Amino acid sequence: MKQTQFGAKGWTPDQIGSLKGKTYVITGANAGAGFEATRLLLSKDASVVMMNRSAEKSAAAIKKLQQEFGRAVPVSFVRMDLAVLQSVRDAAAEVLEKAHNIDALICNAAIAQVADQTITVDGFESQIGVNHFGHFLLCGLLFDRIERSAGRVVVVGSNAYKMGLKRIQFEDLNFDTKYSAWNAYAQSKLAQMVFAYELQRRARAANKSVQIQVCHPGASRTNLIGGQTSFATKIMWKLMSPFAQSAEKGSWPEVLCATQDGLHPEMYHGPTRFEMVGPIDARPVEKVALNRDMANRLWELSEHSTSLNWSF
Fold first, then answer.
1. Quick one: pLDDT band at residue 218, thresholds 50, 70, 90?
2. Does the global pTM surpass 0.90?
3. Are 137 and 51 in contact (CB under 8 A)?
4. Is 166 left (phi over 0), alpha (psi -120 to 50) or beta?
5. What are 87-122's pLDDT values in tens digits?
6. pLDDT at residue 221 above 60?
7. S-S: 61 plus which of 30, 130, 195, 210, CB 3.0-4.6 Å?
8. Is the per-residue pLDDT at 178 higher than 80?
9. Residues 6+ apart with CB under 8 A from 39
10. Which residues, 6+ apart, have CB-to-CB distance to 183 below 8 Å?
11. Choosing from 161, 185, 197, 268, which is the catalytic residue?
């Protein structure tokens, strides 16, 4: 399929005008694509609130940004561990105190390829716990503030959603019977995307002035493949990484979704060459991510699991 909206060269940050007066909240922003998205938004005069787990790494990231943009650069940090729902609740309350407007919440943080089954304190397999349930709760808690700003929710998915089992394994969500790092990761990214398109439908039906956009970074040189992955996965990624794009380029799809007008609903944005590298543009999404029965079941499960009554 040819590029659908931005031409042969795709979308680039040159298309962003001044973002002065706008505030963006980004999860997982102290390294990788999240950090590069922060840099890019700050370069356009926006304010950024970083939501990260590590205070130490966040302080180092802010110091680096101050060296580049000056001591007065409008970036701040809120500590949040997406694997702990109470941490998400506390962090959301702090964001609401700090940010009077939220022009976009960018759900960038993720973990991937966790070699051994790990269960969060709230009882979730770690990848779906961090990637989906933590973000579901955060989006719900910040949604009214985002709507007040006529803002956006940006969900960073992955083309892994159409790999693995290609379904949400409701009967064994935590893979207790047979754990697979890859299948659990693919399920978590599918859950994120199914949630995003369902949120898009519900917000539109309720005439909410919030856009929900989905993107994916393609193959980017970030720290997503980290210490919890297997040795074989690390070796495979080391062999592949020379062919991947930079973390900066990997940040472009989420910045596009947070700032660009006229985006297509029910598509996702990212690299168009095998959905791995190349020009950034809209891509069609497979039907599994738009399955409404699965979406409704996931929504009900997510409300119950996070103790969030999110009605429209």
1. confident
2. yes
3. no
4. left
5. 999 999 999 999 999 999 999 999 998 999 999 999
6. no
7. 30
8. yes
9. 65, 68, 248
10. 164, 165, 175
11. 185
Quote the mean pLDDT of the chain. 92
Q: Examine the residue annotation and report whether 185 is marked as an active-site residue of this protein.
A: yes
- Is the pLDDT at 181 greater than 60? The verdict is yes
> For residue 242, what are the contacts with CB-CB under 8 A and spacing of at least 6?
none
Q: Is the pLDDT reported for residue 184 higher than 80?
A: yes
Contact in structure between 128 and 171 (CB atoms under 8 Å): no
Residue 113 neighbours by CB distance under 10 Å: 21
Q: How far apart are CA 282 and CA 280, in angstroms?
A: 7
Helix 32-43 vs helix 55-69: angle between axes, to the nearest 10 degrees? 30
